[in-house]
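This section describes the prediction task in plain terms. A model, or a person checking by hand, is given the sequence of a single protein chain and must write out its three-dimensional structure as a string of tokens. No templates, partner chains or ligands are provided. The sample shown here is typical of the held-out split.
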Amino acid sequence: MIGELAERFTAEAKAILRHRLALGAGALAVGQYTAAALNFLTNVAMARLLGASDYGLVALTLAYPTLFWSFVGVKSVSVITRYVAGFRATGQRDKLRAVVKLGYGLDVFVSLLAFLLVSASAWWVAGRFYGRSDLAWLMVAYAGSFPLVALMGGSWAVLSSWERFCLLAVLEVLGPFIKLLLVTGWILAGRGVAGAVLGMAVAQAVAGTAMMVAAVQVVQKDGVSHWWSASLRHVAEIRREIGQFFGWNYLLVTLSGFVGQVPLIFLGRFRGPEEAGFYRLALSIVTVSSYVNSSLGRVAYPTLSARFASGDQERILVSVRRWTVRGGLPLGLLLAASIPLFPIFISAVFGRSYAPAVLATQVMMLGRVVSVIVFWLHSLYYASGKVDTWVKGYALYAAVIVAGGWYVTQKWGVLGLAVLNALTEAFFTLGMLILALRSANLR
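The expected answer:
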């Protein structure tokens, strides 16, 4: 009896691992965790070579350009992926080329706008808000990489829709590898905070360029002619729909930028660069720990988009239940089991001076566990066209984080912000899950 059950379990496990979703997610997860390991080494190098105060200055320098980029950038990847996957599944190549051109064009335009606006305002923010006018030119230099970084959105949409997940995994590693070399090398050469910021800027610019080159080659090999020569008239009939999708996605990206950067800026303002560094470190560890969650979500998104475009909606609810039980739940439990190890891990790797980040990291991971279990939730809303519902829910989440962050950072610092972050993320995820399951349109 036991032997028979073991054989069934082994056969089922093999079937799961051989599934296209698992293979694609596995490739992305390997790439993301390799990239995470490189990013981790970069963070360790910065933390140890710069010290807690200068490490915090790096975080503050990056925060303002990143916030501005989120504010003006449309970040078309979520929108373009839905339409590219759908048009490819239904054989509408003229529309496919047109929507790819639209995505690239918008991303590059707003990235240039972001660079100009950061250039015009960085001097005031660095001098008046931070009290460190010497950081202004570094903010501008970092924003200078945005136009090339913007190429990643459309490229990711193309490569994921063509299911080139192994290639995406390789490209995921390229930027962090270059970043590790440049950041570590320039800090050791005596460039300090400037070396760290410039190294990051150059690395992500190279990665964006490489990803676009790869995307162009993939579509050409599949017989799709140059997307840049396509006419946007081919998508004129769905212009209003695409415009609404872009509008809601723009609002989501803007809000996510506020959620990620504004609390960090509050900490730098009210509690100093050290606590800002502790929060950035905690957020980085939590994000890296849940990379497999984002990998699964990215692989699920084109699949769900193609099924909605083809009218194959009956399988969707069955699929997301299976994904939750076989993928999300085990991953969530694994992340929860890692929480007690953080005190040993952070002290051993980053040093005892970063001990205040330990409890904050543990608390934030509790909130992330809930999101990992239903990794497909965000993709489901986007693929079904219910992006407005998702964004409205996220707007409430962002309002709590930003408004509450203003108060808790002054009162309780990084730990208070971590508690606020975890509770809000958990309630947001559960609320959107309940709403999705009750919605007849998503069923």
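For orientation: The radius of gyration is 22 Å.
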